[in-house]
Specification:
Elements lengths: L3 E3 L11 E3 L2 H20 L10 H14 L3 E2 L12 E4 L2 E3 L13 E10 L2 E10 L5 H19 L8 H13 L3 E2 L5 E3 L6 E5 L16 E4 L2 E3 L5 E3 L6 E3 L5 E3 L2 E5 L4 E3 L15
Parallel strand pairs: 1-2
Antiparallel strand pairs: 3-6, 4-6, 5-14, 6-7, 8-12, 9-10, 11-16, 12-15, 13-14, 16-17
Helix pairs in contact: 3-4
Bound molecules: 2-amino-4-trifluoromethylsulfanyl-butyric acid (MF3) and cobalt (II) ion (2 copies).
One cobalt (II) ion binds next to loops.
């Protein structure tokens, strides 16, 4: 049995219950999420051949410090960076390092800033210089998957509606949906109930209610869906080494749909893609 509770009066730990946030929560999330979206905007002109992912990570850290935000990933379960940078066949949780980005690569940059205890979680794909048509198509399909998932969010619908919308589009475009990672409740906690699956059927999962806040963050592969985690304990890669892409927004359920908290202030939600 799933239970829902008023977020204001609940302890800040993941008990599997679904937190319902009020206007204060939505205000807090708007601020944290806007800063996350703003640094992702800043990175559009930074990501180019020759830049290292550690340089990107440093920018994310310092931008946060300058604006009163702490990166949620810092010291999270032993993770020591301010961002995740996942290149090409890396599905997620790539660890920034001193290697230089190269022309033709695609990199996901995932940032979660915490302001006043509110977590703003978002990621985008960034092309490094000119990329191949197949890579561009994967980025387009993956962003479309995210937005179709978001379109399925409304009170009374089940979480499975999100997964079905994403899976149908991805598989219809001969891509595959990663099963091993999912979206998550977010707000006072970085990772909270419920899990948000990126596959499934409309009649599955719990019912969405006004006040729920969660991420949708589909990972879509050009090849097969299977992943493995490297010996560093974090880096997840496609087993067949096929290209993988991901975009992530944080959303809050409203009376008739949802509010996307992490939309780009500059309209740069899909860097390098037309439109
Ligand atoms: N930001 C990621 C997410 O979307 C989580 C990263 S956890 C880390 O949920 F430790 F790998 F950074
Ligand atoms: Co997330
Ligand atoms: Co994230």
């Amino acid at each position: 049995m799933v239970t829902y509770l008023e977020a204001d009066s609940a302890p800040i730990k993941n008990t599997g219950q679904i937190r319902l946030y009020g206007e204060d929560g939505f205000e807090g999330m708007r601020k944290a999420c806007k800063l996350t979206a703003t640094v992702l905007d800043e990175l559009v002109d930074v990501v180019k051949p020759g830049v290292t992912t550690n340089e990107i990570d440093k920018l994310v850290f310092e931008f946060g410090m300058d604006h009163g935000a702490i990166p949620a990933t810092l010291n999270y379960r032993g993770y020591t960076k301010s961002s995740c940078t996942s290149i090409n066949h890396v599905v997620c949780h790539g660890i920034p390092n001193d290697k230089r980005l190269r022309e033709g690569e695609v990199v996901n940059i995932d940032v979660t800033y915490v302001i006043d205890g509110w977590h703003g979680d978002s990621s985008r794909m960034y092309p490094v210089g000119e990329i191949k048509r197949a890579a561009e198509r994967l980025l387009e399909v993956t962003h479309e998957c995210l937005m179709l998932g978001i379109d399925a969010v409304k009170p009374g619908a089940r979480m499975g509606a999100i997964g079905e919308a994403i899976q149908k589009h991805a598989e219809g475009e001969r891509c595959s949906v990663v099963r091993d990672f999912c979206g998550h409740g977010v707000g006072r906690l970085f990772h909270d109930a419920p899990n948000v699956l990126h596959y499934g059927r409309v009649d599955e999962g719990i019912e969405m209610r006004k006040g729920m806040i969660f991420t949708i963050e589909p990972m879509i592969n050009l090849g097969r869906p299977h992943v493995k985690v490297l010996s560093d304990g974090w880096t997840a890669v496609t087993r067949d080494r096929s290209l993988s892409a991901q975009y992530e927004h944080t959303v809050g359920v409203t009376d008739d749909g949802c509010e996307i908290f992490t939309l780009s202030p500059k309209g740069l939600d899909r860097p390098g893609l037309p439109g």
